[in-house]
Design a protein that fits this description.
This protein is mostly helical. The chain is built from 6 helices and 2 strands. The chain has one domain: Alpha-Beta Complex (Sufe protein. Chain: A), CATH 3.90.1010. Helix 2 crosses helix 3. The longest helix has 16 residues. The two termini are 27 Å apart. The C terminus is likely disordered.
Length: 143
């Protein structure tokens, strides 16, 4: 499971400074988000930082594109991009932020942090909004 790989990746780092440096590096490696998606419609509501998520269907699977004005949140969004990549919409229902508790870069338990939960809720809402017709049409275009 990808969450376990991410946890192991961070646990292999020597200390919290190395973990944050790695998190920031992951955020820096995110592809530039198309400015068309840096609008209110794609902004995650309920997060103190400004975060934009765009979930795009491709070949019947979903891919997350994201950006944030916060280095920490941008790094966390980079992890979410990895977790979402290539999953079917129904698979996202099992997505959780609990792995953040184990990589030790977040002070509050993930279940108690409203910003993290808002990020997760936004992804799940976008996944629901994508109609099966869109996924089928996209799948047909890629074959």
């Amino acid at each position: 499971m990808l969450e376990k790989e991410i946890i192991a990746e961070f646990q292999a780092l020597a200390d919290v400074d190395d973990k944050y440096a790695h998190l920031f590096s992951l955020g820096d490696q995110l592809p530039e988000l198309n400015p068309a998606y840096k609008t209110e419609a794609y902004r995650v509501k309920g997060c103190e930082s400004t975060v934009w998520f765009h979930l795009r269907p491709e070949g019947g699977r979903l891919y997350l594109e994201a950006d944030s004005d916060s280095m920490v949140i941008k790094g966390i969004t980079a992890l979410l991009v990895r977790l979402v990549a290539g999953r079917h919409p129904q698979e996202l229902q099992a997505l959780s932020m609990d792995f953040l508790d184990q990589i030790q870069v977040w002070k509050l338990p993930s279940q108690r942090n409203s910003g993290l939960q808002a990020m997760l809720a936004h992804i799940l809402q976008q996944a629901q909004e994508l109609s099966s017709d869109d996924l089928v049409r996209t799948q047909g275009e890629s074959t």
